[in-house]
Amino acid sequence: TCPHCNKPEARGDQCDNCGNSEGRYTDMSDDNRTTAYLPIGYPFFLSLIFRLSDHSHFAGKFSHIILSLLLGYLSYLLSLKLANRKFANLVLILIVFSPSQIFFTRLFLSEILFTFFFMLFLYLLLLLDEVKKKFILLLIAGILLGMATLTRTLTLLFPLVVLIYYILLKQSSTKAIGRVVLIIIGMLLLLSPWMIRNKKIMS
């Protein structure tokens, strides 16, 4: 039972009802031993929302709605790059009115924030050939991928996927590796402080 909102069957790492993350930084045996079992991204985002709104649950859930709408727009832009406007409009409608997307906006879970960072990363990659300052765009893309990784660790090795993608596009190996290295540098700019902190605290 959550000690904050008294919801039964609250998970050991977080309560989906009120967003309480007490225990999020302890291991699953509840012996209060500090670990890095779960990434910091979503708890940090939620803590900012709660701090700005005097711990308003409504503000937390409203932020999910805003992110969900932005996700729909990002999906539209991505589809417009890959296909045509008719297909992009269809994708926008499917995303915005998706039952699962609507369902997740009412829960304090990391899926929406993670997907937002990841989709924004993909969109920047598609913009790469349209801008002159590719160096800066790749670093920003790497930082966004780092944000996604700090939210859910699924994307930790995603630069390898990007490298394979460039190879399949038959780009020169030097160009492909250079782009991926810049993405990794952007990721490390964001991940390194957390990695150093974990090393110091948990040896």
Please tell me about this protein's structure.
- This protein has 203 residues and is mostly helical.
- It contains 8 helices and no strands.
- α2 (57-82) runs antiparallel to α3 (85-96).
- It is flat, with a radius of gyration of 19 Å.
- It starts with 40 loop residues before the first helix and ends with a helix.
- Residues 22-30 have low confidence and may be disordered.
Classify the beta-strand content into a percent band: under 5%
- Give the rounded overall mean pLDDT: 84
Give the helix level as a range of percent: 55-70%
Rounded Rg: 19 Å
Spatial shape: flat
Helical stretch tally: 8
DSSP strand tally: 0
Our measurement of the CA-to-CA distance between the termini, rounded to an integer number of angstroms, reads: 32 Å
- What is the N-to-C order of secondary-structure elements (H for helix, E for strand)? HHHHHHHH
Q: Characterize the biggest β-sheet.
A: none
Give unreliable regions as ranges: 22-30
Classification by helices and strands: mainly alpha
